[in-house]
Specification:
D-Maltodextrin-Binding Protein, domain 2, 2 domains, 23 helices, alpha/beta
Length: 553
């Protein structure tokens, strides 16, 4: 199985490489000499003198058997492999996963950022690039293309050049590949539906009826703990956690032009109709159908997670596979221990838009942004590290590990992730699903869904397949508009994110009669704080390319 998966990834990389024939040629000796490189006995490019780099790594804490993010079996393997293959010494620098956007900004401002940085926020990169604080990768990825076959082969022209400015030619970041473009899912307690004799909801009205049934039958569902029942849970990040519901309120006729002009925020709050989705959540909140304390707890807090694991929550919207993660320590694992094997989370498809489709707004096949800060004195060594991380063998090992330690092979040939489970090797526990924190140029297993589904220990694979298919149903993928830099976006990701979250939270918990006033005041402030400038500049950029057209060719 490992050989097959390795071959599968290798074939994919090779297929990409065929579109870059020039890259596949061996680097000439003059280029190698200039770069201080030689060809090692394994055919890899290695430095003649040892180089040293630091690499950002997300830190998710030590709960549930996790190991130290920057010093464990995986990091040791990476360090030893990169040193042996490329003669590069690697040191990992931890950044808190749940405040990475703030922390990476602080590190960049202080000049202390690691040589290889990872973030979800391109505007933050652009802000420091404008101040000379980010390395322009264009020259390096072009000049040393032959030295970086895995980087080019895995990411391809689309992801490598996604952020290349069409006017200036600058390239501030490489876009990781989103291998599974599923985003989020809507879930309900399967055992609660069965106990109450309810069918899975297929409309907003049926979903509401389900929430009321959960509330009205709290004693039947939770007995003496009935007062703890939460029909629908969300978090401070309402934009992420209510996206499926919100999509149902956005007109299906929204044009490509509007999707781009109002598409700065990845929570889609600028899209037409969004306010009415929040009004619906306000109704639910005031009816007692939503967790009343959702706005009190920020990223990284475990209060909601513990509530879900304790079996108090009936439904929610979250990352598409969130209920099935972490084996015995996850939501499903804990429910099975506390309630029984019948206590499962099932994906439901319940929110239709005005065209009668279950619209999902999906992202382009890009994920985290990998970049080098201006303080980086080893850009080529850093790119060789990224090249190593992007190789088929590296991806396979980091995602799968060794049989018996982090996964087992099933009779049908699929593998099952057992990281952190009984019988696995605790020293090789994956701190993040499939080691996403180390495989910085890929998010998600690039395998058939049947194999992906088998990787959730203790979970019926059919539930995972169902969630996967539901998260893609009626999906609409945003199109890339190659406008170059939108100046007004630089540095605005965090300030507008904070205003967005506060605005959504306050609007939901407002009294119904105050909803419009609360929303309208916060929305006006949001626009005045930079959002309107972004809208205006995006509109001008669109019209400069497409004129009066509202649809992209």
């Amino acid at each position: 199985m490992r050989k097959f998966l390795s071959l599968l990834l290798a074939v994919m990389v090779t297929a990409s490489l065929f579109s870059f024939a020039a890259i596949a040629e061996t680097a000439d000796s003059a280029l190698l000499t200039e770069a201080g490189l030689e060809i090692g006995p394994d055919g890899a490019y290695r430095f003649t003198e040892t180089r040293k780099i630091t690499v950002e790594i997300f830190d998710r804490g030590l709960d549930n058997g996790k190991t130290t993010a920057y010093d464990n079996k995986w990091t040791q393997w990476i360090k030893e492999s990169v040193l042996a293959k490329h003669n590069i010494e690697v040191e990992f620098q931890p950044v808190d996963r749940w405040s990475e956007d703030t922390q990476i900004n602080n590190l960049l401002a202080a000049g202390d950022a690691p040589d290889v940085c990872v973030t979800y926020s391109y505007p933050a990169i652009q802000q420091y690039a404008n101040m000379g604080g980010v390395v322009d990768l264009a020259e390096y990825v072009d000049k040393y293309a032959a030295v970086l076959p895995n980087l080019w082969g895995w990411l391809g022209d689309y992801n490598v050049n996604y952020d290349r400015d069409p006017s200036t030619g600058t390239l501030w970041a490489l876009e990781a590949k989103l291998a599974v473009n599923t985003r989020i899912g809507t879930f309900a307690r399967k055992d609660w539906l069965e106990k109450l004799g309810l069918e899975e909801p297929t409309s907003l009205e049926e979903f509401e009826a389900m929430l009321r049934a959960f509330k009205d039958n709290a004693e039947l569902l939770l007995g003496e703990e009935a007062d703890k029942l939460v029909p629908f849970s969300t978090s401070q990040d309402v934009g992420w956690r209510a996206d499926h519901l919100a999509a149902a309120f956005i007109p299906d006729s929204m044009t490509d032009k509007d999707q781009y002009v109002y598409g700065f925020d990845d929570r889609h709050i600028m899209y037409p109709g969004y306010k009415e989705a929040i009004r619906k959540l306000n109704e639910w909140y005031n009816e007692g159908l939503i967790w009343q304390d959702f706005a009190l707890y920020g990223d990284g807090d475990t209060t909601e997670d513990n509530m879900i694991k304790a079996g108090y929550v009936g439904s929610l919207i979250h990352s598409w596979d969130q209920p099935y993660r972490d084996g015995d320590n996850g939501w499903t694992g804990n429910l099975h221990k506390l309630v029984g094997p019948e206590a499962d989370w099932v994906s439901v498809t319940a929110f239709k838009n005005d065209a009668g489709v279950y619209r999902k707004f999906l992202s382009q096949p890009i994920d985290r942004k990998v970049f080098l800060p201006g303080t980086n004195e080893e850009p080529l060594a850093s790119l060789l590290y990224i090249d190593f991380i992007s190789s088929a063998d590296t991806i396979m090992f980091l995602q799968l590990g060794e049989e018996g330690k982090t996964h087992r092979v099933l009779e049908n040939g699929a593998y099952q992730n057992i990281s952190g489970q009984e019988g696995s090797d605790p020293e090789w526990i994956q701190n993040s699903l499939n080691n996403i924190d180390y495989t910085i140029t890929i998010n998600g297993l690039n395998l058939p869904i049947e194999s992906i589904a088998a990787g959730y220990a203790g979970v019926d694979p059919a539930l995972v397949v169902k969630a996967y298919e539901a998260s893609l149903k009626d999906g609409r993928v945003a199109k890339k508009v190659a406008t170059g830099e939108i100046v007004s976006e630089a540095g605005m990701a965090n300030p507008l994110k904070e205003k967005r979250d506060i605005m959504l939270d306050n609007a939901i918990i407002a009294k119904p009669e105050d909803f419009d006033a609360v929303w309208d005041a916060a929305w006006a402030d949001y626009l005045a704080s930079g959002a309107q400038d972004i809208i205006n500049e995006r509109l001008a950029a669109w019209e400069a390319i497409y004129g009066d057209a509202v649809t992209q060719p």
